Amino acid sequence: MKDSDTAAVRNNNPAGKSRSVPLDCCGGLSNVDYSEMDLTPMKELLKHIDFHDSSFCIAVIAIIFNPLFWNVVARWEHRTRRISRLFGSPYLACYCLGFVIILLNVYRSHSMTVAMKAQARWEVMDRTDVFYTGVALMVVGTLLVVSSFLALGFTGTFLGDYFGILMDEKVTGFPFNIIENPMYWGSTANYLGLALIGASPVGLVLTAIVAVAYKVALRFEG
To answer: At which positions is S-adenosyl-L-methionine bound (predicted)?
Structure first.
């Protein structure tokens, strides 16, 4: 670089300060400066959670165990047909597994409720608008769960295809025409609604774990 060019640069930037380079909007999240994020709300939320509380740990185990259990059992049945042979019928075997899954889900809901009640409420969430948002989420979640069950039937809902029980055609009506996997996301909406109604920060964390567990399960279920 010539001396005249160097002098010109110095004149334009006399203090020698580094200039920020404009971000390329097409670079996605790789261009996000995470150091500028305000993490205060997250820190405040986490302050209200006791991660060592036994009820929290039990709820997390129940959340992770449920989809792991039914995916492992269903795949084992698909390979070996052991459960169908044990019960003498694929339908009876599917009904039995479905009943066990229902009981596990009831226990998961119970354990999450116990964890929410055992830990502190967050005054930031303890507002009327948050409460009614939670109610709305539970209404929507229940609608998705019930309507998807009615569309799929018992065997369609509870992994009947792994038992060789196939539906005549793919279900494309409501709610599958507006959202994929409505049973899973309806259930997640119910838990989120319950957390908002109870102004429960631990409920938000548990709901996030439910969503992650379902996302992982969907990777295996295809």
So the answer is: 139-141, 221-222
